[in-house]
């Protein structure tokens, strides 16, 4: 392994960079003809077979840089300076027609949003076929990258180009028969023979495995070389288009690929769509694959599976990957080389671990400090920060003490919610017998993947949805009995902060009106005192008073989320339900909002019910964790216990999937 | 170890700090000009030549309608038969019609009729349509089914045919209001459909859920949040349909079922002028031109509004 790696490095050195970007500058022209510098003086390089990550927050120019390599700058963007060289060929100034020749065959793309990047009216297979046809790919033979050939050179002796022929689906049964006979002939029996056959059945995927691999597998199983090659030659004679499509999809990790190829995108989950997009991106065996936040829209466990698979695949194909991500932990885990971008410039670059362990630019330092996946303990509130230097160590004790001695403010017992599915008789149980309690002044986090029922629980606690069975009590009273004045009073004490910072504020309302709304609904104060209260609240969330006259569309996502928190705080509530409140934010902003929430909790003795899919965030904010899966409560314990001694396999899977979770930091 | 694996061009690099000064996390740009949906729309409109041209034309048309005496000192109903089909002369730039009435004066006074019918019909249509559409969209369920079916039934009736039938039934006493009511009766459907769609879309946005959780009642949500956010497409269709009501009024008056002949209107004048189309086409031309310019102005205004208020639908 070591040996292989140094061989790869030697080969990379010898061949030189696959992609070389030098002093790249990209401008966008606005409506009134002003130039906005999206990227300035950016330089980085990617070597064959290497994973390079560009890390940055939204607007840092990371996607723009990557798209300029593909010649796919959106709208009014154009390269105004520098050079981009792929295999020595200059791409800046290239005509779209020439880009067409490179895209697909030399460079592939795995786009960000799996939901919108597949054509909904075409079968998945047709869309893979389109990629193959557009580049005139030979579907009967494997195209190997020079690097893969060179690396495998010593192990594999290829006689002629036909040794790269794929297995066809029609000839597979005969091939397996022949293999069975050959194994029997070689004197192998019983379990050994069965194991070999099982291995062949699994590995010999039509349209994906090639003749020399079949021969190689047979030889490894114990068949003599001449016999093995004879079988491979007579039974592996090339695949059809359909075989190749299925082969590509199964390489990307789709089970039962031949059937899946005939399905439409809406029949696929997000993860499956992303696999299909990976198959399309790699269909023509490009030397360079550009992956633009390929898994940001997916659950962490799915993300881990897909990236693991992609890593294996690109390694075996010798494909280099330019990996765009906002997650420093993920970047460090996956890539050998990291490029950090900030405000359109490369601020720091270098080997992943080195950048992570010894960040030098203040921006990188800030990123490392804020990355939730790298954090190892709960955020300490400002109050506690001020107390003494040992607060960090004492916090755990303080936290546990708090949990034991305070009473429950919200109690959820045997909560169940069923939904009627269209065209189906039986009811779908979104939430199934969930019980927990939120203790006064503490944070309980509900963690789960999409579809786990966690948001449904939040909506029932907020009394926006009525449970099918079970109860939610607030201060010992069943909230389903609240009506009229009592309900209004409950609303006053239990406030929500929602996920989408773009949707949760009325775009027609000025910030002042938005924050004032709860005061107005509950008839609190007169006009003058409300103005005073709103400016006090803005102060609390660290926003200048001048934003009062502004509208939500003028503020960033993080600022809107702070406005939403100010609105929730307006009525001095006891409980705040945060439904994925920080999921849509960049890490630095996320960190800022989490700290704000934490400070407010310490100051006002607030209780939080924190819904999230991100276990890394949980560690920063929660005292207790409830893990949900398929509507059921899987595990319920204190945060430290869940992180240090997870009891259930599902929790362990979730913890394993935290990107960069196992990286050693040299920080503290 | 590091030196061995580091490839040329991938050495450790740290940008000098003065090149990219670090800013506060997520700071507010206090210097940026304030903008809301409406100020943004206004900014877009101001730069749109379509809006400027149509705006000036509409302003002119409104002034003519409000103060016809500024433009002519004559009485539109003062007709001298001996001037029948007379050529233009000083003081009578457009000449005379068959009855010997001054064409210029009649065109000026006809503006008021057309505009008030169009405006009144549009206001009524927008009110009725928005109410029905908003109720259907907001409450959904059986009310939505009922209102949507009623909308469909009215949509299936051709507006012109319906208007002719109804106006024939009440032919006796003629006033502007009769024709306005008839147009509103058959015209509210498209507004209702658009309002329903807009309300349905806005209803599911998170800020409504947020308001409910703050303690806001459903009716408060509807009137304070959903309706104001659904207004833009309704305004757009209102502006464009104003033009169609003006045309419809002219058509009905032309067919003789619209305004009584005693009311000065472009449609009525066009109808009368057609008898002398072969001998004296200019008598037909002037009221038709006035009608065309007015309609065009409102359609252009509608397009400009659409660009500003509904940027998604903008054609490149």
TrEMBL record, chain A:
| Residues annotated as domain ABC transporter | 19-368, 410-655
Q: Does the keyword Protein transport apply?
A: no
Please name the InterPro entries in this protein's record.
AAA+_ATPase, ABC_transp_ATP-bind, ABC_transporter-like_ATP-bd, ABC_transporter-like_CS, Oligopep_ABC_C, P-loop_NTPase
Q: Which UniProt keywords apply?
A: ATP-binding, Nucleotide-binding, Transport
- Pfam families for the chain: ABC_tran (PF00005), oligo_HPY (PF08352)
Tagged with keyword ATP-binding: yes
The record's listing under NCBIfam families reads: PRK10419.1, PRK11308.1
What is the protein name given in its UniProt record? Diguanylate cyclase
Give the species.
Bifidobacterium panos
Q: What is the lineage of its organism?
A: Bacteria, Bacillati, Actinomycetota, Actinomycetes, Bifidobacteriales
From TrEMBL, chain B:
Question: Any idea what this protein is called?
Answer: Peptide ABC transporter permease
Q: What is its main location?
A: membrane
Which keywords belong to this entry?
Cell membrane, Membrane, Transmembrane, Transmembrane helix, Transport
Q: Tell me its family.
A: Belongs to the binding-protein-dependent transport system permease family.
Give the originating organism: Bifidobacterium panos
Source taxon at top rank: Bacteria
Tell me what topology the record assigns in the membrane: Multi-pass membrane protein
The signal peptide stretch is none
The cellular location(s) given in this protein's UniProt record come to: Cell membrane
Q: By its UniProt entry, which InterPro entries does this protein fall under?
A: BP-dependent_transpt_permease, MetI-like, MetI-like_sf, OppC_N
Q: What is the lineage of its organism?
A: Bacteria, Bacillati, Actinomycetota, Actinomycetes, Bifidobacteriales
């Amino acid at each position: 392994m070591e040996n292989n790696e140094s061989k790869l490095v030697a080969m990379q050195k010898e061949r030189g960079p696959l992609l070389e970007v030098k002093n790249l500058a990209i401008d966008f022209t606005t409506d009134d003809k002003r130039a906005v510098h999206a990227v300035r003086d950016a330089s980085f390089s990617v070597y064959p077979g290497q994973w390079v990550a560009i890390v940055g927050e939204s607007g840092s120019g990371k996607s723009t840089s990557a798209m300029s390599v593909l010649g796919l700058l959106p709208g009014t963007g154009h390269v105004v300076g520098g050079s981009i060289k792929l295999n020595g060929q200059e791409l800046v100034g290239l005509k779209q027609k020439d880009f067409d020749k490179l895209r697909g065959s030399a460079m592939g793309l795995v786009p960000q949003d799996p939901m919108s990047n597949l054509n909904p009216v075409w079968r998945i297979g047709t869309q893979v076929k389109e990629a193959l046809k557009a580049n005139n790919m030979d579907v009967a033979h494997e195209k190997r990258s020079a690097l893969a050939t060179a690396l495998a050179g010593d192990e594999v002796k290829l006689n002629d180009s036909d040794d790269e022929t794929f297995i066809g689906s029609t000839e597979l049964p005969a091939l397996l028969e022949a293999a069975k006979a050959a194994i029997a002939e070689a004197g192998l029996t019983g379990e050994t023979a069965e194991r070999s056959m099982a291995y062949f059945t699994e590995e010999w995927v039509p349209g994906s495995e090639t003749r020399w691999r079949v021969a190689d597998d047979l030889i490894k199983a114990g068949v003599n070389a001449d016999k093995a090659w004879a079988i491979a030659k007579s039974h592996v004679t090339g695949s059809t288009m359909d075989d190749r499509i299925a082969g590509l999809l199964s390489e990307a990790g789709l089970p039962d690929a031949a059937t899946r190829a005939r399905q439409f995108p809406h029949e696929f989950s997000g993860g499956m769509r992303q696999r299909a997009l990976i198959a399309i991106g790699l269909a023509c065996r490009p030397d360079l694959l550009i992956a633009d936040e390929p898994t940001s829209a997916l659950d962490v466990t799915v993300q881990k599976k897909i990236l693991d698979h992609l890593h294996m695949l690109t390694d075996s194909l010798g494909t280099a990957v330019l990996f765009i991500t906002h997650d420093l932990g993920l970047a460090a885990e996956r890539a050998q080389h990291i490029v950090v971008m900030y405000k359109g410039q490369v601020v720091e670059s270098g080997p992943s671990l080195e950048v992570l362990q010894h960040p030098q630019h203040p921006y990188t330092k800030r990123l490392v400090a804020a990355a939730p996946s790298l954090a190892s303990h709960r955020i300490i509130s400002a109050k506690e920060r001020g107390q003494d230097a040992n607060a960090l160590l004492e916090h755990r004790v303080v936290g546990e003490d708090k949990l034991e001695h305070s009473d429950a403010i919200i109690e959820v017992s045997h909560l169940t919610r069923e939904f009627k599915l269209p065209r189906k008789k039986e009811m779908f149980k979104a939430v199934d017998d969930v019980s927990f309690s939120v203790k006064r002044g503490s944070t309980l986090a509900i963690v789960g993947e999409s579809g786990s029922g966690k948001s449904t629980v939040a909506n029932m606690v907020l009394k926006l949805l009525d449970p099918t069975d079970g109860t939610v009590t607030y201060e010992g009273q069943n909230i389903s009995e609240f009506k009229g004045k009592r309900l209004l009073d409950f609303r006053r004490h239990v406030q929500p902060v929602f996920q989408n910072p773009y949707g949760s504020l009325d775009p027609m309302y000025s910030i002042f009106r938005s924050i004032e709304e709860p005061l107005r609904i509950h008839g609190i104060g007169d006009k003058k005192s409300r103005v005073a209260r709103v400016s006090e609240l803005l102060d609390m969330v660290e926003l200048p008073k001048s934003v009062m006259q502004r509208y939500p569309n003028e503020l960033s996502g993080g600022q809107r989320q702070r406005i939403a928190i100010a609105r929730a705080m307006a009525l001095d509530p006891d409980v705040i339900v945060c439904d994925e409140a920080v999921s849509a934010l960049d890490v630095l902003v996320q960190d800022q909002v989490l700290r704000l929430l934490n400070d407010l909790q310490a100051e006002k003795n607030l209780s939080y019910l924190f819904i999230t899919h991100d276990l890394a965030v949980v560690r920063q904010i929660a005292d207790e964790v409830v893990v949900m899966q398929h509507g059921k409560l899987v595990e319920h314990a204190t945060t430290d216990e869940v992180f240090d001694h997870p009891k259930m396999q599902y929790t362990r899977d979730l913890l394993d999937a935290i990107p960069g979770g196992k990286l050693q930091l040299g920080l503290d | 170890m590091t030196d061995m694996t580091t490839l040329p061009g991938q050495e450790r690099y740290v940008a000098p700090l003065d090149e990219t000064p670090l800013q506060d996390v997520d700071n507010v740009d206090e210097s940026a000009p304030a903008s809301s949906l409406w100020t943004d729309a206004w900014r877009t409109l101001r730069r749109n030549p379509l809006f400027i041209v149509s705006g000036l034309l509409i302003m002119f048309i409104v002034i003519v309608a409000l103060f016809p005496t500024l433009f002519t000192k004559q009485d539109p109903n003062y007709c001298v038969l001996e001037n029948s089909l007379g050529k233009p002369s000083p003081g009578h730039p457009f000449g005379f019609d068959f009855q010997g009435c001054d064409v210029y004066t009649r065109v000026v006074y006809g503006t008021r009729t057309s505009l008030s019918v169009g405006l009144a019909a549009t206001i009524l249509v927008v009110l009725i349509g928005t109410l029905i559409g908003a109720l259907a969209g907001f409450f959904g369920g059986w009310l939505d089914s009922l209102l949507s079916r009623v909308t469909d039934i009215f949509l299936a009736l051709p507006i012109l045919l319906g208007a002719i039938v109804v106006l024939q039934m009440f032919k006796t006493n003629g006033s502007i209001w009769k024709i306005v009511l008839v147009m509103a009766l058959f015209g509210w459907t498209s507004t209702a459909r658009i309002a329903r769609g807009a309300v349905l879309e806005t209803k599911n946005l998170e800020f409504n859920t947020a308001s409910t959780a703050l303690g806001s009642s459903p009716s408060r949500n509807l009137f304070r949040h959903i309706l104001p956010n659904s207004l833009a497409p309704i305004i757009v269709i209102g502006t464009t349909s104003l033009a169609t009501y003006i045309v419809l009024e002219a058509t009905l008056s032309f067919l003789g079922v619209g305004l009584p002949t005693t009311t000065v209107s472009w449609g009525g004048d066009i109808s009368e002028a057609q008898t002398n189309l072969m001998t004296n086409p200019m008598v037909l031309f002037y009221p038709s031109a006035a009608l065309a310019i007015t309609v065009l102005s409102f359609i252009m205004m509608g397009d400009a509004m659409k660009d500003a208020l509904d940027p998604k639908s903008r054609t490149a």
